[in-house]
Amino acid sequence: xxxxxxxxxxxxxxxxxxxxxxxxxxxxxxxxxxxxxxxxxxxxxxxxxxxxxxxxxxxxxxxxxxxxxxxxxxxxxxxxxxxxxxxxxxxxxxxxxxxxxxxxxxxxxxxxxxxxxxxxxxxxxxxxxxxxxxxxxxxxxxxxxxxxxxxxxxxxxxxxxxxxxxxxxxxxxxxxxxxxxxxxxxxxxxxxxxxxxxxxxxxxxxxxxxxxxxxxxxxxxxxxxxxxxxxxxxxxxxxxxxxxxxxxxxxxxxxxxxxxxxxxxxxxxxxxxxxxxxxxxxxxxxxxxxxxxxxxxxxxxxxxxxxxxxxxxxxxxxxxxxxxxxxxxxxxxxxxxxxxxxxxxxxxxxxxxxxxxxxxxxxxxxxxxxxxxxxxxxxxxxxxxxxxxxxxxxxxxxxxxxxxxxxxxxxxxxxxxxxxxxxxxxxxxxxxxxxxxxxxxxxxxxxxxxxxxxxxxxxxxxxxxxxxxxxxxxxxxxxxxxxxxxxxxxxxxxxxxxxxxxxxxxxxxxxxxxxxxxx
Length: 519
Prior knowledge:
This protein is of the alpha/beta class. It is about 45% helix and about 10% strand. It has helices spanning about 10-15, 20-30, 35-45, 50-60, 70-80, 95-105, 120-125, 130-140, 155-160, 160-170, 195-210, 235-250, 280-285, 305-310, 325-340, 345-365, 375-390, 405-415, 430-440, 450-460, 480-505, and strands spanning about 85-90, 115, 145-150, 225-230, 255-260, 295, 315-320, 370-375, 390-400, 425, 445, 460-465. It is globular. The mean pLDDT is about 95.
């Protein structure tokens, strides 16, 4: 083999060597049940046709590459947003490894999470002993201030009762009776990561507000003028949360960020390992019951949590991942309405700069067609911004979106002439998106890293916005909310447009008549 200590080749060079090429060819011939290349090509071309699209959209019993993750991932995301809290997933170690790796690969940070390590015997006899031992080990080894428990498929299929298991574990001495162990049932075989986020946050707030599972008196709400903020499951939580804090501080508003994981997903390298860093304090979580109102940046991440908060006497506001001018306008106006404070002049000037930037670049975006996929709120926010830019969000797809969501997207389309030929696709996956890109092509695709396979297959340039983004670094450090965030999204879109113009005009003396220095 060509690899040696004196000449270390990267993998994308190494596997192009003749030895590896021959090895891979032998593997394909002997073990992969190959078909005639001409037949493979014929089927590949047929799978690009309207006929195949019709069959593709008719399937019911199969999902191919869904644009979502499972509930416990959202629960883990919530848990690390509270001070000194470690997520405890009642299920197998393999599941927890997936949640940790997914978050670590996106945020480029260690992601702490423990498991009750259920195996075959627990699947038959129940996981109570795993819970008793697991909570004891977690409490003694990692010294958390709170352990937030969620479940995986295995625990849900056999019907393990978290409330009863946690009480029994406390009786057995796994953790002190007064120690905070909120929980949420998060079956991974229904819903998605946004559902898990919702269930976990609701469980934590109910724990603190409603008597800590019967071990303390319920809190009596004493209304004050503070505002709670819930970001939802957000791949840009580092940049977005800091931007939101800046906005609240400019208003001079007393506020609580519920699920503040901006620090734990952006710890410094200074010689100290921080298993826990930052986060909403447990005192803040409890006192949040007294707030005047709660703003959720993502409606579909808080479908259960917001009604629960409203039932405790607060005003609630649900937004849809506001990106750009109109979305940020509504966010700021809701803060102003709830608090009675004027929108700061600094934010008004930032708005003017974003409007100016849009005007400067409108000619390059106007009329461009986009396909979007991702979480329901993200799709709504991006579609709204594209309409502001004079672009057409032609295909908007959310695997974890429902018909109610699709109706809301259609209502958004109806507000603009640029939405006339656009359509929402609830419950569809990225294989559906593939058919759309072949039969109703667009200029650009917006979504997470998994869209790079669609980009390669269909030739549609991918703009990476969403979660997860594995193959690009540090996008999560920049906000996409607020006027500053809208500017970041605008620049990201424009950079891709200009890159594509250059790519298509760079052949000397043939296409370079538009290979311009000035755009």
